[in-house]
Amino acid sequence: MSYELWKEALSLFAGGVNSPVRALVRPSPFFTAKGEGPFLITEDGKKIIDYVLGYGPLILGHSPERVKQKIKEQVDKGWLYGTPSRIEVELAKKIINHIPSAQKVRFVNSGTEATMNAIRLARGFTGRTKILKFNGNYHGAHDYALIEAGSAVSEYGITISKGVPEEVVRTVTVCEYNDLECVERRLKSENIAAVILEPVMGNYGVIPPEDGFLRGVKELTSTYGSLLIFDEVITGFRLDIGGAQSLFKVVPDLTTLGKIIGGGLPIGAITGKREIMESITPAGSVFNAGTFNANPLSMTAGIATIEELENKNPYTEINRAAEVLADEIDQMIKTEHVTHRIGSMFQFFLGVKDVKNASDAKITNRALYLKIHEMLLKEGVFIPPSQLETIFTSTSHNDEVINITIDKFKKVLGELA
Ligand SMILES: Cc1ncc(COP(=O)(O)O)c(C=O)c1O
User: Fold this and answer.
1) Mean pLDDT of all residues in the chain?
2) Which residues carry this modification: N6-(pyridoxal phosphate)lysine (predicted)?
3) What is the phi/psi pair of residue 133, to 5°?
4) Of 8, 19, 236, 344, which one's alpha carbon is 20 to 30 angstroms from that of 208?
5) Atom of ligand 1 nearest to the CA of 137
6) CATH architecture under which domain 65-311 falls
7) Catalytic site residues?
8) Which sequence spans correspond to the domains of the chain?
9) Cβ proximity of 257 and 102 under 8 Å
10) If you take atom 13 of ligand 1, which residue's CA is the nearest one?
Protein backbone atom coordinates (compact mmCIF):
# COMPACT_ATOMS: atom_id res chain seq x y z
CA MET A 1 0.00 0.00 0.00
CA SER A 2 1.19 3.50 -0.84
CA TYR A 3 1.08 4.84 2.69
CA GLU A 4 3.19 1.99 4.15
CA LEU A 5 5.69 2.35 1.28
CA TRP A 6 5.81 6.11 1.88
CA LYS A 7 6.63 5.61 5.56
CA GLU A 8 9.40 3.19 4.60
CA ALA A 9 10.68 5.52 1.88
CA LEU A 10 10.95 8.36 4.41
CA SER A 11 13.50 6.29 6.30
CA LEU A 12 15.42 5.37 3.13
CA PHE A 13 15.57 8.55 1.03
CA ALA A 14 16.10 12.23 1.83
CA GLY A 15 12.55 13.56 2.09
CA GLY A 16 11.25 10.13 1.07
CA VAL A 17 11.91 10.56 -2.65
CA ASN A 18 14.56 10.47 -5.36
CA SER A 19 13.50 13.71 -7.04
CA PRO A 20 12.03 16.53 -4.96
CA VAL A 21 8.85 17.37 -6.90
CA ARG A 22 7.53 13.88 -6.14
CA ALA A 23 7.31 14.69 -2.43
CA LEU A 24 4.85 17.52 -3.10
CA VAL A 25 1.95 15.19 -3.95
CA ARG A 26 -0.88 15.73 -1.43
CA PRO A 27 -1.76 14.49 1.11
CA SER A 28 1.20 12.11 0.60
CA PRO A 29 2.80 10.60 -2.52
CA PHE A 30 1.06 7.60 -4.08
CA PHE A 31 3.25 4.75 -5.31
CA THR A 32 2.72 3.59 -8.87
CA ALA A 33 2.60 -0.09 -9.73
CA LYS A 34 1.85 0.27 -13.44
CA GLY A 35 1.37 2.79 -16.24
CA GLU A 36 -1.16 2.10 -18.98
CA GLY A 37 -2.23 4.61 -21.67
CA PRO A 38 -3.46 7.76 -19.88
CA PHE A 39 -3.57 5.97 -16.52
CA LEU A 40 -1.34 5.31 -13.55
CA ILE A 41 -2.38 2.32 -11.48
CA THR A 42 -1.30 2.75 -7.88
CA GLU A 43 -0.13 0.23 -5.30
CA ASP A 44 -3.57 0.73 -3.75
CA GLY A 45 -5.23 -0.47 -6.95
CA LYS A 46 -6.54 3.00 -7.89
CA LYS A 47 -6.64 4.01 -11.56
CA ILE A 48 -5.66 7.65 -12.00
CA ILE A 49 -5.79 9.83 -15.14
CA ASP A 50 -2.27 11.17 -15.54
CA TYR A 51 -1.53 14.70 -16.81
CA VAL A 52 2.04 14.70 -15.50
CA LEU A 53 3.24 11.99 -17.91
CA GLY A 54 6.64 11.52 -16.31
CA TYR A 55 7.05 15.35 -16.41
CA GLY A 56 6.82 15.42 -20.18
CA PRO A 57 8.41 12.48 -22.01
CA LEU A 58 5.32 10.29 -22.46
CA ILE A 59 3.74 11.99 -25.47
CA LEU A 60 2.20 8.63 -26.49
CA GLY A 61 0.93 7.88 -22.96
CA HIS A 62 2.19 5.04 -20.77
CA SER A 63 3.54 1.82 -22.33
CA PRO A 64 2.46 2.40 -25.94
CA GLU A 65 2.30 -0.97 -27.70
CA ARG A 66 4.83 -0.46 -30.50
CA VAL A 67 7.44 1.22 -28.30
CA LYS A 68 7.05 -1.58 -25.75
CA GLN A 69 7.51 -4.20 -28.47
CA LYS A 70 10.66 -2.53 -29.81
CA ILE A 71 12.16 -2.30 -26.31
CA LYS A 72 11.47 -6.02 -25.79
CA GLU A 73 13.16 -6.87 -29.09
CA GLN A 74 16.17 -4.78 -28.10
CA VAL A 75 16.39 -6.50 -24.70
CA ASP A 76 16.87 -9.75 -26.58
CA LYS A 77 19.88 -8.21 -28.34
CA GLY A 78 21.52 -6.81 -25.18
CA TRP A 79 21.29 -3.41 -23.56
CA LEU A 80 24.82 -2.07 -23.23
CA TYR A 81 27.62 -2.57 -25.73
CA GLY A 82 30.30 0.04 -24.97
CA THR A 83 30.72 0.34 -28.75
CA PRO A 84 28.86 2.32 -31.38
CA SER A 85 25.64 0.74 -32.67
CA ARG A 86 23.36 1.13 -35.69
CA ILE A 87 20.50 2.50 -33.59
CA GLU A 88 22.41 5.59 -32.41
CA VAL A 89 23.03 6.44 -36.06
CA GLU A 90 19.32 6.02 -36.77
CA LEU A 91 18.16 8.21 -33.89
CA ALA A 92 20.72 10.95 -34.67
CA LYS A 93 19.53 11.01 -38.30
CA LYS A 94 15.94 11.52 -37.15
CA ILE A 95 16.95 14.39 -34.87
CA ILE A 96 18.98 16.05 -37.63
CA ASN A 97 16.13 15.55 -40.06
CA HIS A 98 13.55 17.24 -37.82
CA ILE A 99 15.30 19.82 -35.62
CA PRO A 100 16.35 22.83 -37.76
CA SER A 101 19.52 23.66 -35.75
CA ALA A 102 20.74 20.04 -35.61
CA GLN A 103 23.76 19.16 -37.75
CA LYS A 104 25.64 16.87 -35.36
CA VAL A 105 24.56 15.17 -32.14
CA ARG A 106 26.13 13.98 -28.86
CA PHE A 107 23.92 11.66 -26.83
CA VAL A 108 24.08 11.80 -23.03
CA ASN A 109 21.79 10.44 -20.33
CA SER A 110 19.64 13.30 -19.05
CA GLY A 111 18.56 16.84 -19.76
CA THR A 112 20.85 17.91 -16.93
CA GLU A 113 23.88 16.42 -18.68
CA ALA A 114 22.78 17.96 -21.97
CA THR A 115 22.65 21.55 -20.67
CA MET A 116 25.80 21.12 -18.55
CA ASN A 117 27.73 19.98 -21.63
CA ALA A 118 26.15 22.59 -23.91
CA ILE A 119 27.30 25.31 -21.50
CA ARG A 120 30.82 23.86 -21.38
CA LEU A 121 30.81 23.60 -25.17
CA ALA A 122 29.75 27.24 -25.56
CA ARG A 123 32.49 28.33 -23.20
CA GLY A 124 35.10 26.19 -24.92
CA PHE A 125 34.07 27.33 -28.38
CA THR A 126 33.87 31.08 -27.66
CA GLY A 127 36.70 31.26 -25.12
CA ARG A 128 34.35 33.28 -22.87
CA THR A 129 33.10 32.35 -19.41
CA LYS A 130 29.79 34.03 -18.60
CA ILE A 131 26.38 32.53 -19.22
CA LEU A 132 23.12 34.47 -19.38
CA LYS A 133 20.05 32.58 -18.18
CA PHE A 134 16.50 33.62 -17.29
CA ASN A 135 14.79 33.77 -13.94
CA GLY A 136 12.59 30.68 -13.54
CA ASN A 137 14.01 28.74 -16.48
CA TYR A 138 15.04 25.27 -15.34
CA HIS A 139 17.95 23.55 -17.06
CA GLY A 140 18.48 20.60 -14.75
CA ALA A 141 20.33 20.04 -11.50
CA HIS A 142 23.96 21.05 -12.09
CA ASP A 143 25.87 23.97 -10.58
CA TYR A 144 25.58 26.41 -13.51
CA ALA A 145 21.82 25.91 -13.74
CA LEU A 146 20.82 26.09 -10.06
CA ILE A 147 20.74 29.87 -9.96
CA GLU A 148 17.26 31.45 -9.97
CA ALA A 149 15.90 28.25 -11.46
CA GLY A 150 12.28 27.17 -11.85
CA SER A 151 10.55 23.88 -11.12
CA ALA A 152 11.16 22.29 -7.72
CA VAL A 153 14.11 24.63 -7.07
CA SER A 154 11.74 27.57 -6.79
CA GLU A 155 8.91 25.54 -5.27
CA TYR A 156 11.22 24.75 -2.35
CA GLY A 157 12.23 28.42 -2.08
CA ILE A 158 15.83 27.92 -3.18
CA THR A 159 17.25 30.91 -5.07
CA ILE A 160 20.77 29.54 -5.35
CA SER A 161 21.37 25.96 -4.25
CA LYS A 162 23.63 25.59 -1.25
CA GLY A 163 26.86 23.97 -2.33
CA VAL A 164 27.20 25.94 -5.55
CA PRO A 165 30.52 27.81 -5.17
CA GLU A 166 30.37 31.61 -5.27
CA GLU A 167 32.95 31.52 -8.04
CA VAL A 168 30.44 29.60 -10.14
CA VAL A 169 27.56 31.94 -9.27
CA ARG A 170 29.66 34.87 -10.52
CA THR A 171 29.86 33.25 -13.97
CA VAL A 172 26.09 33.27 -14.44
CA THR A 173 24.01 36.39 -15.03
CA VAL A 174 20.21 36.44 -14.94
CA CYS A 175 17.47 38.41 -16.72
CA GLU A 176 13.68 38.21 -16.49
CA TYR A 177 12.09 36.22 -19.30
CA ASN A 178 10.70 38.39 -22.11
CA ASP A 179 12.96 41.32 -21.11
CA LEU A 180 14.95 42.03 -24.25
CA GLU A 181 16.40 45.25 -22.88
CA CYS A 182 18.02 43.37 -20.04
CA VAL A 183 19.48 40.89 -22.53
CA GLU A 184 20.95 43.72 -24.58
CA ARG A 185 22.41 45.47 -21.51
CA ARG A 186 24.09 42.28 -20.32
CA LEU A 187 25.41 41.30 -23.73
CA LYS A 188 26.84 44.77 -24.19
CA SER A 189 28.54 45.00 -20.82
CA GLU A 190 29.49 41.41 -19.98
CA ASN A 191 31.54 39.11 -22.17
CA ILE A 192 28.88 36.42 -22.56
CA ALA A 193 29.64 32.97 -23.99
CA ALA A 194 26.03 31.92 -24.39
CA VAL A 195 22.43 32.77 -23.67
CA ILE A 196 20.49 29.68 -22.61
CA LEU A 197 16.70 29.67 -22.48
CA GLU A 198 13.57 27.59 -22.65
CA PRO A 199 11.85 28.78 -25.87
CA VAL A 200 8.57 28.30 -23.98
CA MET A 201 8.86 28.30 -20.20
CA GLY A 202 7.60 24.97 -18.91
CA ASN A 203 9.09 24.96 -15.45
CA TYR A 204 7.23 27.92 -13.98
CA GLY A 205 3.84 26.88 -15.16
CA VAL A 206 3.63 27.58 -18.88
CA ILE A 207 4.87 31.01 -19.96
CA PRO A 208 5.18 31.64 -23.70
CA PRO A 209 7.70 34.00 -25.25
CA GLU A 210 6.23 37.37 -26.24
CA ASP A 211 6.13 38.24 -29.94
CA GLY A 212 9.63 38.99 -31.12
CA PHE A 213 11.40 37.86 -27.93
CA LEU A 214 13.11 34.77 -29.35
CA ARG A 215 14.02 36.52 -32.59
CA GLY A 216 15.30 39.50 -30.62
CA VAL A 217 17.54 37.31 -28.46
CA LYS A 218 18.81 35.58 -31.60
CA GLU A 219 19.71 38.91 -33.24
CA LEU A 220 21.39 40.22 -30.09
CA THR A 221 23.49 37.08 -29.59
CA SER A 222 24.76 37.25 -33.15
CA THR A 223 25.50 40.98 -32.81
CA TYR A 224 27.57 40.42 -29.67
CA GLY A 225 29.28 37.18 -30.69
CA SER A 226 27.52 34.98 -28.10
CA LEU A 227 25.96 31.60 -28.79
CA LEU A 228 22.25 30.98 -28.42
CA ILE A 229 21.22 27.71 -26.74
CA PHE A 230 17.59 26.62 -26.87
CA ASP A 231 16.86 24.19 -24.06
CA GLU A 232 14.20 22.08 -25.77
CA VAL A 233 14.24 19.25 -23.24
CA ILE A 234 10.47 19.75 -22.81
CA THR A 235 9.47 21.40 -26.09
CA GLY A 236 11.53 19.26 -28.49
CA PHE A 237 9.20 16.92 -30.43
CA ARG A 238 6.29 18.14 -28.24
CA LEU A 239 5.28 21.53 -29.65
CA ASP A 240 6.10 20.39 -33.14
CA ILE A 241 8.12 17.55 -34.59
CA GLY A 242 10.82 20.21 -35.16
CA GLY A 243 10.46 21.61 -31.64
CA ALA A 244 9.77 25.21 -30.62
CA GLN A 245 12.45 26.41 -33.05
CA SER A 246 10.34 25.10 -35.93
CA LEU A 247 7.16 26.56 -34.53
CA PHE A 248 8.66 30.02 -33.94
CA LYS A 249 11.05 29.86 -36.90
CA VAL A 250 14.06 30.93 -34.85
CA VAL A 251 17.10 28.69 -35.19
CA PRO A 252 19.60 28.70 -32.30
CA ASP A 253 23.30 27.75 -32.46
CA LEU A 254 22.88 24.83 -30.06
CA THR A 255 19.88 22.85 -28.83
CA THR A 256 19.54 20.58 -25.84
CA LEU A 257 17.06 17.73 -25.99
CA GLY A 258 15.86 15.01 -23.61
CA LYS A 259 12.55 13.52 -22.44
CA ILE A 260 10.57 12.61 -25.66
CA ILE A 261 13.66 11.62 -27.69
CA GLY A 262 14.15 8.71 -25.27
CA GLY A 263 10.50 7.64 -25.36
CA GLY A 264 10.45 7.55 -21.55
CA LEU A 265 13.89 6.02 -21.03
CA PRO A 266 16.82 8.10 -19.70
CA ILE A 267 18.34 10.33 -22.38
CA GLY A 268 19.74 13.75 -23.24
CA ALA A 269 21.32 15.20 -26.36
CA ILE A 270 23.34 18.22 -27.38
CA THR A 271 22.97 19.19 -30.98
CA GLY A 272 23.71 22.21 -33.17
CA LYS A 273 25.97 23.74 -35.75
CA ARG A 274 28.60 21.41 -37.15
CA GLU A 275 31.57 23.70 -36.45
CA ILE A 276 30.56 24.13 -32.80
CA MET A 277 29.78 20.44 -32.25
CA GLU A 278 33.20 19.55 -33.67
CA SER A 279 34.72 21.04 -30.50
CA ILE A 280 33.51 18.02 -28.48
CA THR A 281 36.00 15.23 -27.76
CA PRO A 282 37.43 13.34 -29.55
CA ALA A 283 37.05 15.73 -32.54
CA GLY A 284 37.88 18.72 -30.32
CA SER A 285 38.96 19.31 -26.75
CA VAL A 286 35.73 20.15 -24.90
CA PHE A 287 35.45 16.94 -22.93
CA ASN A 288 32.39 14.76 -22.73
CA ALA A 289 32.12 11.02 -22.13
CA GLY A 290 29.66 8.56 -20.62
CA THR A 291 29.42 4.84 -19.93
CA PHE A 292 25.75 4.98 -20.82
CA ASN A 293 25.86 7.57 -23.64
CA ALA A 294 23.70 6.41 -26.57
CA ASN A 295 22.32 3.56 -24.48
CA PRO A 296 20.70 0.99 -26.82
CA LEU A 297 17.40 0.79 -24.93
CA SER A 298 16.98 4.58 -24.87
CA MET A 299 17.92 4.78 -28.57
CA THR A 300 15.34 2.12 -29.42
CA ALA A 301 12.53 3.72 -27.41
CA GLY A 302 13.40 7.11 -28.93
CA ILE A 303 13.34 5.84 -32.50
CA ALA A 304 10.04 4.01 -31.98
CA THR A 305 8.46 7.11 -30.39
CA ILE A 306 9.61 9.47 -33.14
CA GLU A 307 8.43 6.98 -35.78
CA GLU A 308 4.96 7.12 -34.26
CA LEU A 309 5.10 10.93 -34.38
CA GLU A 310 6.25 10.81 -38.02
CA ASN A 311 3.66 8.28 -39.11
CA LYS A 312 0.64 9.53 -37.21
CA ASN A 313 1.36 13.26 -36.95
CA PRO A 314 -0.71 13.43 -33.74
CA TYR A 315 -0.04 17.08 -32.93
CA THR A 316 -3.48 18.37 -33.94
CA GLU A 317 -5.08 15.70 -31.77
CA ILE A 318 -3.00 16.18 -28.60
CA ASN A 319 -3.19 19.96 -28.94
CA ARG A 320 -6.96 19.79 -29.26
CA ALA A 321 -7.24 17.66 -26.13
CA ALA A 322 -5.22 20.27 -24.23
CA GLU A 323 -7.24 23.12 -25.75
CA VAL A 324 -10.63 21.63 -24.81
CA LEU A 325 -9.49 20.91 -21.27
CA ALA A 326 -7.68 24.22 -20.75
CA ASP A 327 -10.64 26.24 -22.10
CA GLU A 328 -13.14 24.39 -19.90
CA ILE A 329 -11.01 24.88 -16.79
CA ASP A 330 -10.45 28.52 -17.67
CA GLN A 331 -14.20 29.10 -17.84
CA MET A 332 -14.91 27.14 -14.67
CA ILE A 333 -12.55 29.15 -12.46
CA LYS A 334 -14.55 32.16 -11.35
CA THR A 335 -11.88 33.97 -9.32
CA GLU A 336 -9.04 35.99 -10.85
CA HIS A 337 -6.72 33.80 -12.91
CA VAL A 338 -5.00 33.37 -16.24
CA THR A 339 -4.51 30.20 -18.30
CA HIS A 340 -1.60 29.74 -20.69
CA ARG A 341 -1.62 27.02 -23.30
CA ILE A 342 0.67 26.32 -26.16
CA GLY A 343 0.18 23.08 -28.08
CA SER A 344 -0.20 20.20 -25.63
CA MET A 345 1.21 22.08 -22.62
CA PHE A 346 -0.85 24.30 -20.32
CA GLN A 347 -1.20 25.62 -16.80
CA PHE A 348 -3.59 27.91 -14.94
CA PHE A 349 -2.30 30.59 -12.57
CA LEU A 350 -4.58 31.56 -9.70
CA GLY A 351 -5.00 35.02 -8.17
CA VAL A 352 -3.22 36.94 -10.96
CA LYS A 353 -4.31 38.53 -14.23
CA ASP A 354 -1.14 38.46 -16.25
CA VAL A 355 1.97 36.27 -16.15
CA LYS A 356 4.83 37.05 -18.49
CA ASN A 357 7.77 36.02 -16.35
CA ALA A 358 8.73 34.16 -13.19
CA SER A 359 8.28 37.18 -10.93
CA ASP A 360 4.63 37.46 -12.03
CA ALA A 361 4.11 33.73 -11.51
CA LYS A 362 5.74 33.70 -8.07
CA ILE A 363 2.83 35.59 -6.50
CA THR A 364 0.05 33.27 -7.69
CA ASN A 365 -2.13 31.50 -5.14
CA ARG A 366 -0.10 28.31 -4.92
CA ALA A 367 -1.89 27.06 -1.80
CA LEU A 368 -5.21 27.06 -3.67
CA TYR A 369 -3.59 25.29 -6.63
CA LEU A 370 -2.30 22.59 -4.28
CA LYS A 371 -5.76 22.21 -2.75
CA ILE A 372 -7.22 21.67 -6.25
CA HIS A 373 -4.43 19.15 -6.98
CA GLU A 374 -5.24 17.25 -3.78
CA MET A 375 -9.01 17.19 -4.32
CA LEU A 376 -8.60 16.12 -7.97
CA LEU A 377 -6.29 13.31 -6.95
CA LYS A 378 -8.98 12.01 -4.60
CA GLU A 379 -11.26 12.00 -7.64
CA GLY A 380 -8.70 10.08 -9.71
CA VAL A 381 -7.08 12.90 -11.71
CA PHE A 382 -3.36 13.68 -11.35
CA ILE A 383 -2.22 17.19 -12.25
CA PRO A 384 1.29 18.31 -11.21
CA PRO A 385 1.68 18.84 -7.46
CA SER A 386 3.06 22.31 -8.11
CA GLN A 387 1.72 25.35 -9.92
CA LEU A 388 5.20 25.71 -11.38
CA GLU A 389 4.99 22.51 -13.44
CA THR A 390 3.16 21.85 -16.70
CA ILE A 391 -0.03 19.92 -17.46
CA PHE A 392 0.61 17.72 -20.52
CA THR A 393 -1.69 15.73 -22.79
CA SER A 394 -0.75 12.66 -24.84
CA THR A 395 -2.21 10.67 -27.73
CA SER A 396 -3.87 8.44 -25.13
CA HIS A 397 -5.99 11.29 -23.73
CA ASN A 398 -9.07 10.66 -25.88
CA ASP A 399 -12.44 12.47 -25.69
CA GLU A 400 -13.75 10.10 -23.04
CA VAL A 401 -10.76 10.71 -20.76
CA ILE A 402 -10.94 14.48 -21.31
CA ASN A 403 -14.69 14.52 -20.57
CA ILE A 404 -14.23 12.57 -17.35
CA THR A 405 -11.51 15.02 -16.35
CA ILE A 406 -13.77 18.02 -17.07
CA ASP A 407 -16.49 16.50 -14.85
CA LYS A 408 -13.98 15.97 -12.04
CA PHE A 409 -12.76 19.57 -12.31
CA LYS A 410 -16.41 20.74 -12.20
CA LYS A 411 -17.00 18.79 -9.03
CA VAL A 412 -13.82 19.97 -7.29
CA LEU A 413 -14.15 23.62 -8.29
CA GLY A 414 -17.84 23.51 -7.34
CA GLU A 415 -16.97 22.25 -3.87
CA LEU A 416 -14.36 24.97 -3.46
CA ALA A 417 -16.69 27.80 -4.58
C1 LIG B 1 13.83 22.53 -19.87
C2 LIG B 1 14.53 21.47 -19.08
N3 LIG B 1 15.85 21.35 -19.17
C4 LIG B 1 16.54 20.41 -18.51
C5 LIG B 1 15.89 19.53 -17.67
C6 LIG B 1 16.65 18.47 -16.94
O7 LIG B 1 16.36 17.23 -17.49
P8 LIG B 1 16.60 15.89 -16.63
O9 LIG B 1 15.56 15.90 -15.56
O10 LIG B 1 16.42 14.80 -17.64
O11 LIG B 1 17.98 15.97 -16.09
C12 LIG B 1 14.50 19.62 -17.53
C13 LIG B 1 13.77 18.70 -16.64
O14 LIG B 1 12.63 18.81 -16.36
C15 LIG B 1 13.80 20.62 -18.24
O16 LIG B 1 12.47 20.75 -18.14
Assistant:
1) 97
2) 259
3) -125, 175
4) 19
5) 1
6) 3-Layer(aba) Sandwich (3.40)
7) 138, 231, 259
8) 65-311
9) no
10) 140
